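Appendix B. One record, verbatim.
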Amino acid sequence: MNLYLLRHTQPDVAPGICYGQTDLGLAASFDAELQRIRAGLAEVHVDHVHSSPLQRCQRLAAALAAGKVHQDPRLMELDFGEWELQLWETIPRGLVEVWTEDYVQHAPPGGESFFDLQQRAISFFDEVSANNEDLLVVTHAGVIRALLAHALNMQLLDAFRLRVDYGSLSQLELQDGRVTVSAVNRRF
């Protein structure tokens, strides 16, 4: 089984804005990014396409899928709660510092921790890996980092060392009950 983790393309959001589960549209560069991704995936065969229900993933997944796209809320980005759509610089510095010191266990007010995100991502992975099919999963950087950290037995606190660019592909292989990472942040 191969699990191809594809991060969505550039969203339409101003720099410095905190966003996670906010349903953002895509930047004007979407068509050009889509063509590069489509060409890069030309030799990749998948049995099914899964996607976060947020439109920045759903639109890319629909453009790449030959059939139905399976939406799954477990593939959504981190919920930043009250911080969603706020400028990072306007969020009280003390609150951000507490969160950044242990974002694995601490959640922004009204949001979720990175540990919570990883648990839902692992739940998705465990469910789909039982089918032994090759899947394309269009999702977000947080979900991709969480699954890569899980596969690499990496401390979740270190997951943000992994670079996951817009439109990049990471790949997990599951064979004989063992998960390996075949690619991280492959750009097209």
